[in-house]
Backbone:
């Protein structure tokens, strides 16, 4: 089942080559907090992931986008992750989200188009529990999301502790497509 | 650049104030709410791509100033993920439908207190000049604090918020944004937009012992 947000932050830090910061959560909605030393904390997944990428010793800063447009798009997907993905627990909300993402990803390899970014990394972690629950038929139904997800989970170093999900590379049931 | 919005949308203030400060020309295109059910506003970038997050649009229009300021990041995330899920339904109840909802107020109380504490004796929430954090939070609170004749006692006791809000309200970029977005009618012009905007999803309460995760589904409302 879903892995805690602490685990996610630790695996992000690991992917980005960051030091082993202490991670805790705040309140009953479990907002992650990163303890960066000298009594300083950073609160919130979007904030923490940007910080880890920017301070990454292994070149993670390039995942933050190089143009103002890219940076704005990444910011909106980080917000989407914490306000929509993590909160679409009811089936109708999850379906609406997958439908929206499926049409967005129709003509894209990654969220920004052709470049892997922090948006993919954060959306991958957030959608992992959602994709886990999908049946074979549902994965076919949201095939753009599935194709993107499979692409990201095979990106070197991304998967970490998360189990790999199985997707068909070809479409067997073409009648379910539009 | 074009901003697609319905009239009186408080989130559109975020983009308009930012463009006023940065001196960017922003063309406002009115959207018919009966034909668009999603969130508004939407900012169309020069590349043709669209930004549907008003907070990201605000920062972009400011010229991505302070993008490396982690405290601004924190406040923008707090506004969208923690404040809005409780503020939006409260505003809809009291401004939109003209009734007070005590249960919603109780949920918002700790959030306003948190903001009030951070604003005590400060002119700006981060640093010594206006940042995206001020613009985003000010716009979010505009329907509650924007009409000084209608601020209730529950809201005036947050004196840190009141002073900070009123100080920003005197700045030209904010004043002219109100005039643009509300067509000089003020808070009352926000009603239709507030009622049409989809409500944000509520945070999910996580049951703390990880072994009890199988029961987590039953606790959500």
Residues:
């Amino acid at each position: 089942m879903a892995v805690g947000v602490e685990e996610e932050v630790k695996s992000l830090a690991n992917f980005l080559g960051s030091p082993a910061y202490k991670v805790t959560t705040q309140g009953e909605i479990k907002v992650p907090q990163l303890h960066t030393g000298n009594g300083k904390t950073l609160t919130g997944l979007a904030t923490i992931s940007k910080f880890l990428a920017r301070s990454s010793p292994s070149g993670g800063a390039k995942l933050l986008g190089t143009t103002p447009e890219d940076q704005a798009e990444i910011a909106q997907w980080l917000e989407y992750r914490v306000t929509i993905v993590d909160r679409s627990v009811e089936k109708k909300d999850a379906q609406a989200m997958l439908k929206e993402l499926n049409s967005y990803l129709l003509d894209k390899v990654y969220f920004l188009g052709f470049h892997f970014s922090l948006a993919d990394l954060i959306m991958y972690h957030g959608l992992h529990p959602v994709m886990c629950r999908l049946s074979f038929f549902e994965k076919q139904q949201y095939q753009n999301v599935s194709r993107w997800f499979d692409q990201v989970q095979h990106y070197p170093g991304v998967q970490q502790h998360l189990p790999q999900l199985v997707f068909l590379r070809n479409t067997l049931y073409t009648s379910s497509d539009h | 650049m074009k901003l697609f919005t319905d009239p009186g949308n408080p989130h559109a203030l975020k983009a308009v104030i930012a463009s006023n400060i940065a001196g960017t020309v922003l063309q406002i295109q009115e959207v018919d709410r009966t034909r668009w059910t999603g969130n508004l506003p939407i900012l169309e970038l020069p590349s043709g791509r669209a930004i549907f997050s008003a907070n990201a649009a605000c920062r972009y229009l400011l010229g991505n100033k302070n993008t490396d300021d982690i405290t601004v990041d924190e406040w923008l995330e707090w506004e969208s993920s923690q404040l809005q899920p409780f503020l939006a339904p409260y505003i809809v109840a009291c401004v939109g439908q003209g009734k007070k909802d005590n249960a919603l107020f109780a949920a918002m109380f700790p959030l306003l207190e948190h903001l009030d504490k951070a604003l005590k004796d400060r002119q700006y929430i981060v640093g010594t000049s206006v940042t995206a954090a001020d613009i985003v939070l000010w716009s979010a609170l505009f329907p509650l604090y924007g009409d000084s004749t209608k601020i209730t006692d529950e809201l005036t006791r947050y004196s840190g918020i009141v002073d900070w809000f009123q100080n920003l309200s005197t700045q030209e970029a904010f004043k002219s944004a109100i005039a643009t977005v509300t067509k000089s009618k003020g808070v009352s012009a926000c009603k239709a937009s507030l009622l049409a905007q989809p409500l944000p999803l509520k945070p999910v309460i996580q049951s703390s012992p990880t072994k009890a995760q199988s029961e987590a589904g039953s606790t959500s409302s």
User: Anything to note?
Assistant: DSSP finds ten helices and four strands in chain B. Strands of chain B lie at 2-5, 27-30, 42-44, 50-51. Chain B touches chain A at residues 45-47, 49, 51-53, 55-57, 59-60, 63-64, 67-68, 70, 73-74, 76-78, 80-82, 84-85, 200-206, 208, 210, 213-214, 217, 220 (CB under 8 Å). The longest helix of chain B spans residues 70-96.
